[in-house]
Amino acid sequence: MTPDVDAAMGRALALAAAAVEWGDTPIGAVVLGPDGTVLAEAANEREKQGDPTAHAEVLALRAAARVHGDGWRLTGTTLVVTLEPCTMCAGASVLARVDRIVYGADDPKAGAAGSLWDVVRDRRLNHRPQVTGGVRAEESATLLRAFFRRQRGL
């Protein structure tokens, strides 16, 4: 793991923790440019915005597209996210031409980067990002478990 990716995952974890403040599931995402600089970052804002598509990955990809310089194509970028992307976020990453997805915890209930589905490696699609999972997975999983325990009053 490169220092850029480790630092980006640290930032994504901090963003994820902040999402709890407005009642959102703690997921954070950072988009790195081809040179490793941060292009954009976001936390889940579904509750904050009242928008079912306001996942951290989608918000970060949208913001990165505004600054990357190639329109909507995020060629050469890396999406770093605390939880394995769902089908929507995996699909958005493929359609945005993200080169690499790095995620923390696996999501056996909704993951689309290999756990439940494998959207990002589907050979029928015209783009397939490289995927690395399990980066600082326990830190992400700990945030998620604590959040859902509080939600369920346990």
> What is the end-to-end distance?
36 Å
The best one-word shape is globular
Query: What is the CATH homologous superfamily assignment?
Result: Cytidine Deaminase, domain 2
Biggest β-sheet, characterized?
Answer: 5 strands, mixed
Total beta strands: 5
The topology string of helices and strands comes to: HEEHHEHEEH
Helix and strand content put the structural class at: alpha/beta
CATH topology: Cytidine Deaminase, domain 2
Strand fraction equals: 15-25%
Residue-averaged pLDDT, rounded?
95
Low-confidence stretches: none
CA radius of gyration:
14 Å
Number of domains: 1
Give the class-level CATH name. Answer: Alpha Beta
User: Percent helix among the residues?
Assistant: 25-40%
Number of helices: 5
Q: Could you give the order of strands across the largest sheet?
A: 2-1-3-4-5
The second-level CATH architecture is: 3-Layer(aba) Sandwich
Secondary structure layout:
Elements: H1 3-19, E1 28-32, E2 38-43, H2 46-49, H3 56-68, E3 78-83, H4 87-95, E4 100-105, E5 130-132, H5 137-151
Parallel strand pairs: 3-4, 4-5
Antiparallel strand pairs: 1-2, 1-3
Enzyme class: hydrolase
Protein name: tRNA-specific adenosine deaminase
Keywords: Hydrolase, Metal-binding, tRNA processing, Zinc
Report on the structure:
By secondary structure, the chain is an alpha/beta fold. It has one domain (5-137): Cytidine Deaminase, domain 2, CATH 3.40.140. Helices cover 38% and strands 17% of the residues. 42% of the residues are buried. The model has no long low-confidence stretch (mean pLDDT 95).
